[in-house]
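User: structure tokens for Fluoride-specific ion channel FluC, please.
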Amino acid sequence: MKDGLVVALGAGLGATARFWLSSLLDAPLSITLAINLVGCFAFGLFRPGPFWGSGVLGGFTTLSTFALLAADLPTGTAIFYVLLTMVGSVAAALLGRRLSA
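Assistant: Done. Predicted tokens:
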């Protein structure tokens, strides 16, 4: 139960940070991509525990916004955005891991 509360508190902070950053800039595709890449990089670099990992970074990164944005794009652009996000996110996590070693 304690870990669940820790994750929930972290997720609230991460989601609030994402919302705040997203509201500062009027570029939903690029800000969502940047948030997901930075979050994946941080996961790989720091390999955080429940509060910072599943909580803060889990709340900060966002699959649901990414999916909604991609669904509203023309097909070719959506495919490019999905591939860029998926490949970029895995590459960012791997780079973070490599730099932490």
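User: Anything notable?

Assistant: The longest helix spans residues 75-100.
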